[in-house]
């Protein structure tokens, strides 16, 4: 794409973002197609991360920071703190633990001692099909709580996401994973969840968190804690399975 060529031609201190009204060839993880109807917030963002930095040594964490930034973009607005938007490891945004509402895709290129990162993120703001959207969640909250929260716009949420992401990256660079994990766990869907590994009759394990490199940690009885790499595995929440991709 154009942004992928432009990112090497601009000064390193200059940020770059592309915002799409709709996409016709959206990409997901593992070669999946990402459908992008009108009403979604769709962006590709370029950032530079020094290799010899906290985040440069833990590049898989970026997708978690972006997922968290999307959720925070909504839930840090006064009055919107209890909108049931959550993060799902490794790179999804969910309504509670019920329905996917968005996703993140990160591509990184190392040139000398700098990672050039292209972050694609999309989330459903104002389109009730084919799943649910953030403004549906706000309307539902208003009905249940008697509040009058206004619907949000895609432009506003993209801007807020980028602002929150910048802050999360600063904190991570200063304090490492422990600077952001408490907030991440506050919003993630997995705490204490029991899963099967590899197949429906595979061994039982409990999700305990993510490690210093952003990989999921599971505790298997008698086996201790092990890390699961996102590039080789997907997490099927409907069947509570961690399966090789």
UniProtKB/TrEMBL annotation:
This is BPL1 ligase. The keyword Cell cycle does not apply. The gene is Hlcs. It comes from the Eukaryota. Belongs to the biotin--protein ligase family. It comes from Motacilla alba. Signal peptide: none annotated. Residues 1-173 form the BPL/LPL catalytic domain. Keywords: Ligase. One of its GO terms (cellular component) is cytoplasm. The keyword Phosphoprotein does not apply. Pfam families: BPL_C (PF02237), BPL_LplA_LipB (PF03099). One of its GO terms (molecular function) is biotin--[biotin carboxyl-carrier protein] ligase activity. The lineage of its organism: Eukaryota, Metazoa, Chordata, Craniata, Vertebrata.
């Amino acid at each position: 794409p154009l942004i992928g060529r432009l990112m090497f031609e601009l000064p390193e201190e200059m940020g770059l973002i592309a915002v799409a009204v709709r996409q016709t060839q959206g990409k997901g993880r593992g070669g999946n197609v990402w459908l992008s109807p009108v009403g979604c917030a769709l962006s590709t963002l370029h950032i530079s991360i020094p290799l010899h930095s906290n985040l440069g040594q833990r590049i898989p964490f970026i997708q978690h920071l972006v997922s968290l930034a999307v959720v925070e973009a909504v839930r840090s607005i006064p009055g919107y703190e209890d909108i049931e938007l959550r993060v799902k490891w490794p790179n999804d945004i969910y309504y509670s633990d019920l329905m996917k509402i968005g996703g993140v895709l990160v591509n990184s290129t190392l040139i000398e001692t700098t990672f050039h990162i292209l972050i694609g993120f999309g989330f459903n703001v104002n389109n009730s099909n084919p799943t649910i959207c953030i403004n549906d969640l706000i309307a539902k909250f208003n009905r249940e709580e008697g509040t009058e929260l206004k619907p949000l716009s895609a432009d506003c949420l993209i801007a807020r996401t980028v602002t929150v992401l910048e802050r999360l990256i600063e904190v991570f660079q200063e304090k490492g994973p422990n600077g952001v994990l408490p907030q991440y766990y506050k919003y993630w869907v997995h705490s204490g969840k029991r899963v099967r590994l590899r197949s429906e009759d595979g061994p039982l394990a409990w999700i305990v968190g993510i490690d210093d490199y952003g990989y999921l940690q599971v505790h298997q009885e008698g086996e201790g804690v092990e890390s699961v790499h996102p590039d080789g595995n997907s997490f099927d929440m409907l069947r509570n399975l961690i399966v090789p991709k």
